Amino acid sequence: MTTREDVSTVDTPEDTEATTTGPETDAGSEDAQPQSDSPPRRWLRHPTRRTVALGAGAALLVASLATSAVLAVKLSERQAIDNAGQQALAAAQQYAIILTTVDGAKLDENFAAVLDGATGEFKEMYSESSNQLKQVLIDNEARADGKVIAAGIKSATKDKVEVMLFLDQAVSNKLNPEPRLDRNRIIITMDKVDGRWLASDVVLP
After folding, report:
1. What 3-state class would DSSP assign to 142?
2. Residues 129-183: tens digit of each pLDDT
């Protein structure tokens, strides 16, 4: 028969469970925090969208500046050629009048002006033939007055320009004292020599 005192000393399930679970909890806490000797992992830093955008923007800026520089050089070269063409055009028109104007009383001045505005082979050729030409003009009492009707640039570089001109030339001589109008088309090649535009070739196509 069980007495009150025997009942009080009997272990309850709660007491038994509490007694046995204590050491297991301590062992589990040690396993939950293992010690590791491996070095800390270093994470690679990937470029952000902002970094990529800035890099692309810089590349576009460099490309834009390079393109602008090339265009500026080409524009400068084009402007230089245009200026050369206009200068040579004006010089060719003046020279065409000198070349097609003859006054028997001023032949020496005419020839000197032609040679002064010429260069290269054309100058040499005209200089060699000027004496014979002078005598023919004197003997025939020749006279001519040239007038430029139209002129334009055929081709151009910074140092050489071809100019096409249309001229009217009133010609008279001993046999035909009344002036006769001749219409001519000539191409004058102008070379830039020591800052001057001089005729290096004259062609009647």
Report:
1. coil
2. 888 888 889 888 999 999 999 999 999 999 999 999 999 999 999 899 999 999 9
Q: Which residue has the tokens 């005209």?
A: 126
Q: What DSSP element (H or E) covers 110?
A: helix 107-116
Residue whose tokens read 């834009």: 64
Tokens matching residue 139: 């003997």
Global pTM value: 0.65
Superfamily of structural domain 82-203 = VirB8 protein (3.10.450.230)
Instruction: Give the span between the Cα atoms of 97 and 125, in whole angstroms.
Output: 19
Choose among 134, 59, 139, 70: nearest CA to 102. Answer: 134
Round to whole Å and give the CA distance between 147 and 4: 153
6-19 pLDDT per residue, tens: 444 444 444 444 44
Question: Could you give the 3-state DSSP secondary structure of residue 140?
Answer: helix
| Euclidean distance between CA atoms 97 and 149, whole angstroms | 11
Q: Do 154 and 186 contact (CB within 8 A), yes or no? A: no
- Give me the sign of the Cα torsion angle 166, 86, 117, 129: negative
Neighbours of 94 (CB within 10 A): 13
CB atoms within 10 A of CB 104: 15
